[in-house]
Design brief:
CATH topology of the largest domain: Immunoglobulin-like
Largest sheet: 4 strands, antiparallel
Number of domains: 2
Shape: flat
Number of helices: 2
Radius of gyration: 25 Å
Helix content: 10-25%
Distance between the termini: 100 Å
CATH class of the largest domain: Mainly Beta
CATH architecture of the largest domain: Sandwich
Strand content: 35-45%
Structural class: alpha+beta
C-alpha cells in the first residue's frame, strides 16, 4: 500500500501561481512601466452630466496650463481634449519614484446629443477643466402643433 500526504490547498496554490503568471505576462505586454501607457489611454478622468439645455464635461488636469490644452467639437456630438504634460527635469537630483504620466494625450468623448459648437465655454480652475456646451437646436424638444379638422 502506497502512502501519500494529504494536501488540501495544493490545487488552490497551483491556480494562484498560474494566475500570477498570466498577470505578469499581461503587464509585460505594456512594457516595464506597469501599465502606465494603458492608464494614459483614459486620461484625463472626466465627469459628464446634463442640466436643462446644456451638457457639462469636467476633467481633472492637475498641473496643466490652459495654454497647453486644446478643445475641439466635431461631428456635432464629439468633444476632443488634447494636451501635453511636460516631464519635470531634475538636474541634480535622482528619481526614486515616478508615477504621474507625462507626454501628449488626446481623449474624445461622444456626447449624449448634438451640441452647438458656437456656444461652448471652457474654464480651467485649480486643475479642473469645466466645459459647458449648449444643446443644438435639433436636439432640443420641439412642441408640435395639432391641427383640428
Amino acid at each position: 500500500m502506497r502512502l501519500s500526504r494529504w494536501e488540501p490547498f495544493s490545487p488552490m496554490w497551483d491556480r494562484l501561481r498560474r494566475f500570477q503568471g498570466e498577470m505578469n505576462r499581461l503587464f509585460d505586454r505594456w512594457g516595464g512601466d506597469g501599465g502606465a501607457e494603458f492608464a494614459w489611454a483614459s486620461f484625463p478622468p472626466v465627469n459628464v452630466w446634463e442640466e436643462g439645455e446644456e451638457v457639462f464635461v469636467e476633467a481633472k488636469l492637475p498641473g496643466f496650463d490652459f495654454k497647453g490644452l486644446e478643445i475641439y467639437v466635431t461631428g456635432g456630438n464629439q468633444l476632443t481634449l488634447k494636451g501635453e504634460r511636460k516631464q519635470p527635469v531634475v538636474e541634480k537630483g535622482l528619481w526614486h519614484r515616478q508615477e504621474r504620466g507625462f507626454g501628449r494625450f488626446s481623449r474624445t468623448l461622444t456626447l449624449p446629443f448634438p451640441v452647438d459648437s458656437d456656444k461652448v465655454d471652457a474654464r480651467l480652475e485649480n486643475g479642473v477643466l469645466l466645459v459647458k456646451l449648449a444643446k443644438h437646436e435639433s436636439a432640443k424638444p420641439r412642441k408640435i402643433p395639432i391641427k383640428a379638422e
